[in-house]
Amino acid sequence: METLTAALLSVLPRDSVITDPVRLRTYECDGLTYHRATPGVVVLPATAEQVARVVRLCNDFGVPFVARGAGTGLSGGALPREDGVLIVTSKMRAILEIDLPNRRAVVEPGVTNLAITEAVREQGYYYAPDPSSQQVCSIGGNVAENSGGAHCLKYGFTVNHVEACEIVTPDGDLVTLDRMDPGYDLLGAFIGSEGTLGIATKITVRLSRAPEAVTTVLAAYESIEQGGQAVSEIIGAGIVPAAIEMMDALAIEAAEAAVACSYPEGAGAVLIVELDGPAAEVERQFARLREICAGAFELRVAADAAERAAIWKGRKSAFAAVGRISPAYIVQDGVVPRTALPGVLAAIDRISAEHGIRVANVFHAGDGNLHPLVLFDDAEPGAGERAEVVSGAILDLCIEHGGSITGEHGVGVDKARYMPRMFSETDLDTMQLVRCAFDPEGLANPGKVFPTPRLCGEVPGVRKGVHPLVESGKAEQF
Amino acid sequence: MIEGATVRQAGPEDAVGGVLPRWVALPESVEEVAAVLRACAERDLAVVPAGGGTKLHWGAPPERCDVRLDLGRLDTILEHAAGDLVVRAQAGVTMGALAAALADEGQELAVDAPFPEDATVGGTLATAPAGPRAFRYGTPRDLLIGVTVVLPDGTVARSGGKVVKNVAGYDLGKLFTGSYGTLGVIAEATFRLHPLPAARRWVRAEVDAADLPGIAAALAASQAEPSAAEVDRPEPDARPALAVLAEGAAAESRAAELRELVGGGEISDAPPPWWGLVSRDETLVEVRFPATGLAAVLEAAERAGLAVRGSVLSGRVLMAPSAPMEPEVLAGLRRRVEAAGGRVNVLVTPHAGLDRWGQVSALPLMRRVKERFDPGRRMSPGRFVGGI
Amino acid sequence: MDPKLINDCVHCGFCLPTCPTYVLWGEEMDSPRGRIHLMKQHVEGTPVTPEMAGHFDACLGCMACVTACPSGVRYDRLIELTRVEVERRHERDPQERAVRGIVFSLFPYPRRLRLTRPVTPLARRMAGYVGRANPSLGAMAALTPRVERRERLPRVVRARGERRAVVGMLLGCVQREFFPQVNAATARVLSMEGCDVVIPPRQGCCGALSVHAGREEQARRLARRTVRVFERAGVNTVVVNSAGCGSSMKEYGELLGEEPGFEVRDLSEFLAELGPVAERHPLPLTVAYHDACHLAHAQGVRSQPRELLAGIPGLEVREIPESAICCGSAGTYNIFRPEAARDLGDRKAKAVGSTGAELLVSANPGCTMQIAAAMRRAGDDIRVAHMAEVLDASLRGVGL
């Protein structure tokens, strides 16, 4: 590490290389604090060329590297390597170009998601993907995780809104992946690859025209079942709202404690439905929505932007707000087909009761993306383990119902062990072919996404004996 | 020759880009596709997957082709979960049959595939044509949420799933979409669906070519949210026809708003006859460009003597000449289009030596992907960028 | 330090974009999340290293992170406790010690501060020279404002018209010595709005500067004295026109272990609660309102000053972009960390400049000095005024 550090100092300014142990430790985890590792060295490059140089040095020294943006990820995707370099893009935060005639912006990876929208809001445009952490999470991290957000029900994910990326490949080349270019859709494969295929250093995003009308409705129901029923009816009526979000009583309690969002008292579930589009369409959809939500005991309609923000406030703060009602918690992220929601929620209830562990539910009801918050007291012996069991059982439920182990938080280090439950060995081996094409040396964020890294020289097929990486202690067999 | 799958001798009608295969394999299941590919791997036979054959002449002819893998018998719609707005279908289902089945439930797959009567799910994905409504709904890759592929060695692999929101693992679907059969075979696909709009209205008008860029910019920025705006200019110097689509319960009033932006025209509940049609001529050029490149693209087409049809909003048009296109004409077109930030892809041409795709910055990476998936270069060899 | 306060942080990072030093440098250890991590390391046994102390010192204490935190982490409390710990354990280098010595034996003592007034014009002219010798002293010299004629305030200013309230008024140290006109305006506005204003003559520093620097003992001593003075004056409410002082006085309970016998209100907060009675005369002006951190973040007072400004006919209020980010003044920060303060000041000056406003209004003397100095540097001079001065002008029907 010392010789590598010296080499890094030859390509980066002194204050862009962090080696002090106390400082290094502040980078030991991202938004998921459960997994921690103090990085060998942290670098804060200011340009794409610097990133490329660092990566080339990692190749020269055979040292792994991990990219990190704002460190808000919830699957440990940016968990550092003790034997590796952590490349932090937080100094690369210039908006390089705003090109409204072509409806696009070119930004550096450290620019926050919300900063893009703020830069073009006055001109009537916005950047559509809106993860809950949008004021802090970086666009580079969004690209790595293929972030969604509340409004992806109608507008899709990061991958649907990125036109091009300049990337540093795992061997240190600067390459541009552009949707307009012919050839394989490497951009599509790169987005969501969680830093295992390289590091995005310049991102061209598509800007969307702000809708003419937005109507945000908060419907309070006695029970989560009634709320779920309303969701099915909305979809059944051929309405695609911009967002449909649901929170259960426990999640409402937390949000209330944190931001005093003043949701209707006594609600077993609140549903937030946002309609947007041409005014004439929104008006008609809203009329229909009112009929569908007739069963709600209270229906609030935001009259202006401030009231809309007030409705969203509780929802957007829900994750961190749970800290107010529980000393510790796990944020889970799973997906089930929307029609399976009622059954799955009932099953979560049962599991929760069985283990004596409370579960608060916050979810993107429109696309079946659950965010159960598994609450426990870390001071109570065994509670953490029971919470882990409940959290894992919820993922099993998702897989059973033909869903996914992650809708937006990514696999990272946290869920790599669940991948074999969702995918067969040949599925995973086939994904590894992509990995090997980009990163034959396995230096880019190793240990993430896939449970057992396969050496790229190996021929796919039945594995014999102990994997060399497992044998050498570099990987763990699940 | 191959256990468990029907194979017949190929005839002249089975040729791919003029290359005559020896056999045509007609598997009826994913397992049979895998069996065929395994057998071909053992015998080092080159394979070209085919669906309805409507776009098999797109892309370069294969370097070699021993087996034409006809997926037409994988024609089952496996699951239509209407409540989830998701459909899973085998590769050989035609786009027309799929649309009809979905329409029964008031839904649609928002890909305006050309030749829908014959074109299949697999072929549409492999060539990934962008239809008129790509501006609103994206291209096929944006609507594909899960895929089952068979690799050249017969390995069956899945990625994605049947939920729209899913970030587990790499998205092989994106990689295979638009790969022209060079990485393996798409056997099944799962798509996200949309409800059929309550109404559709087209604003149809003839406009001056010089006014088109301004109109297109206004349409793209319009909060009346057009789903598509297509231009048709059958002769290089003709006055272009423009058709703008509004979809939704309020389509009529929105179409009226859009007509203001176009500067007149009639509002109709049917598209013009040329809407979304793709020429079957022996030369077909695809031009992609940023919005501000429209004027330059139109001018380049005029100079090259090409007919133009396609989207002025999503920046993708198809051009066809009245006579075979000479290499120097292509070079001129490409120069002008690229200067405006666009790309020229020659999908169909009788000229063997023509540079179909131009320079691609990520080509070395693409070669590495090809090398991993198809180390024996047996899948549609030579058909795609850089002779991949 | 209480590990429980530290464990409230769930590491979500929502504080990052609001932190001035993270905005400047983009480094984890100079963000609230990173600093809390450093505190955790210290609590778990890591000694205070010079690096660690440097990151704590770099915190402006603007409390924007407290506003942004969805988990309710008491960063304000954490950083104060940490500063005490740093003062106790960390040996500073001699030059740094000397500067801190000057500041803490000068600013909290109005009388000593008064002695510097005759030399302030000289100090301003010599700022560049002094700055080369010691950047901190240079910054201090450059910030000194032009001082207006001192106005001696009576012990009591009677209400005009019907008496609606009796309030005490804090004069502040910097406010009293460098901005006496602000105190005069404050007393007039309160009186015109129907308040008897009690101004105890023997009041000293409220202790805010010492609290923010971790000088706990000095802070307690000054706080006790302030409490005594106002309790003797017999008022139930003390109105404060300096945001930094107000936020500290609101936390006397926590500092002293018992609540004082009066409530503390910022001027805007108090006037908004009281409701207007005096006639507002038109002031045809465009103003940019600057949220002082110790008002907006520490006291949660954001809407009231805007409402008061909006109540003045002819006056147009413009919002400053990035209004939640600190201007870099932050009490004594611009003296101890002149480079960072200067960068933040330049950033704020640019934001203020972008509004095109004619007048900058704020509720804190430190901010006013800092932003005015930054705008002077940028050659984009702007007139500045305290909230009280604007209201005073409108109520009296005179120009500003």
Automatic annotation (TrEMBL), chain A:
The molecular function terms of the Gene Ontology recorded here are:
FAD binding; oxidoreductase activity
Query: Can you give the residue ranges of the FAD-binding PCMH-type domain?
Result: 35-210
Any Pfam family the entry gives: FAD-oxidase_C
InterPro entries per the record? FAD-bd_oxidored_4_C, FAD-bd_PCMH, FAD-bd_PCMH-like_sf, FAD-bd_PCMH_sub2, FAD-linked_Oxase-like_C, FAD-linked_OxidoTrans_Type4, Oxid_FAD_bind_N, Vanillyl_alc_oxidase_C-sub2
Required co-factor? FAD
**Keywords assigned by UniProt, alphabetized:** FAD, Flavoprotein, Oxidoreductase
Q: What is the designated name of this protein?
A: Glycolate oxidase
TrEMBL record, chain B:
Superkingdom of this entry's organism? Answer: Bacteria
Q: Is Transport one of the keywords?
A: no
Q: Which GO terms describe its molecular function?
A: catalytic activity; FAD binding
The UniProt keywords, alphabetically, are: FAD, Flavoprotein
Gene3D superfamilies with a match to the protein in the record: 3.30.465.10
Residue ranges constituting the FAD-binding PCMH-type domain according to the UniProt record: 16-196
Which PANTHER family has this protein been placed in? D-LACTATE DEHYDROGENASE, GLYCOLATE OXIDASE SUBUNIT GLCE
What protein is this chain from? Glycolate oxidase FAD binding subunit
Q: What phylogenetic lineage does the species belong to?
A: Bacteria, Bacillati, Actinomycetota, Actinomycetes, Streptosporangiales
From TrEMBL, chain C:
Q: Which SUPFAM superfamilies match?
A: 4Fe-4S ferredoxins (SSF54862)
Obligatory cofactor(s): [4Fe-4S] cluster
PROSITE patterns given in the database record: 4FE4S_FER_1, 4FE4S_FER_2
Q: Which reaction does it catalyse?
A: glycolate + A = glyoxylate + AH2; (R)-lactate + A = pyruvate + AH2
Question: Is Repeat among this UniProt entry's keywords?
Answer: yes
Q: Which domain of life is it from?
A: Bacteria
Keywords in alphabetical order: 4Fe-4S, Electron transport, Iron, Iron-sulfur, Metal-binding, Repeat, Transport
What's the EC number here?
Answer: 1.1.99.14
| Segments forming domain 4Fe-4S ferredoxin-type | 1-29, 50-73
Which GO-annotated molecular functions does the record name? 4 iron, 4 sulfur cluster binding; glycolate dehydrogenase activity; metal ion binding
Question: Could you identify this protein by its name?
Answer: Glycolate oxidase iron-sulfur subunit
Q: Which organism is it from?
A: Nonomuraea wenchangensis
